[in-house]
Amino acid sequence: MYFIASLLLIVPIALASAPVTSSPPVLVWGVETPKATSIFQPVTTSQFQKIIRNLQKNNMIIIYLASELAAKDINCDLCFPYLTKIQPMNYYSQVEEPLNAVERVAEKTGEITWHIPKITEMGSLEAEMELPCQKGEIHAFSFNDRNLLAHDAAMAVATYQFSDCPVVHVYTAYTEEDKALQRRKSQKTQHMSIKNKGNGQPSNSDTVAELQPHQISHSQADNMTVLRNEMIVLTFRNIIMAIKEQPSVLSPFNRTEVVLAQGGEALQVGLLNSHDIYGGIVLVLHTELSPLIVELMPSQGNWYLTRMIFMNNTHYPRELYFFGFEFSLCCTDITVYNSDGSRFSFFDFHLDILWQDKDNGLDLEYEVKPCWNCSILMTPTMAQTIFVVLIIAAILWMGLAILLSIGQNQLLQNANDPDLHIKTDT
Fold first, then answer.
1. What sign does the CA torsion over 242, 246, 250, 252 have?
2. What residue range is the signal peptide (predicted)?
């Protein structure tokens, strides 16, 4: 187990030193394909080659190539009115050189048949896509532009043409969008350029001199840890884990400060549905003890902190932590609890989620959104306690009033009335 755990920690560090290659998104439909092994690492060329090779045995492969694509293009539902209706749709947010993978498969089974259709002319497009159904054949349609609506219409025609044929359709691009690729390269350069001092800590002079001036992902300021990602700006003072020594009410807690792991990427962000941010996101903080996963779900224009997972234990908040899309969450402390009574706390917690494409959390000139304070003046427990106390006080008051009224005659006798008859024993 120790060897496996060590291997899991070493593999990301080895991957960090690999060169950044063009990794456009890929859509595959017509058959179920394996899911990506990680939402944080791109599918490698060899992995995608294996997928295509397995699909080629019983299917014809048709690949559609745009000039360049980014993951945000695929997340545009209005750009693909036809593809959004196809189920099942297999989505890979990043695949390293997918065309190279298909070409490697074609080297052993046969050449790729290339087509350059005029996607704006529907008549010639239908004629170009009238192909014989042959298993194992690979056809590539080169669109050579980023007219996404036209691509969607062309792929709709192709899917209809091969409705009676076992065909696997693949939509991708020659290269990743240049802006997205350069941004990933700059992030990789930042992580590789930090030189360590003798004690293993990066020196301030090295960091300032070698990092790009407006792109920093991990820094310290006024005893606060600042973690940056394209989509996230996270700040906190420290993290404390408290575990009970024994499962009893009076058992003391063992408190441990959780420290981020040195080297590599301290903060990573993933999409829960692997498609868009509106399906929920997870933040992964790499600590020395274990990865810390923070899950946030959107609902009715707000972000909700639903749970945290640490050391294979799931912790849930007792309070309702939420903040609007146009705000950032600011809390003096956030505590989540496990079923065995252990707890996990962030102190001086500040979280800003950048859900618009125009914003970039790595830009030091970005101004975080206004604070949504999570301080609660009336907690649910306090509200329930006050309600119960008021009910008990009302019952006691009524009972005391009844007791005090015993023996007091509130009816005065009229002078014209006869004397009251009082029955006696004599």
1. negative
2. 1-16
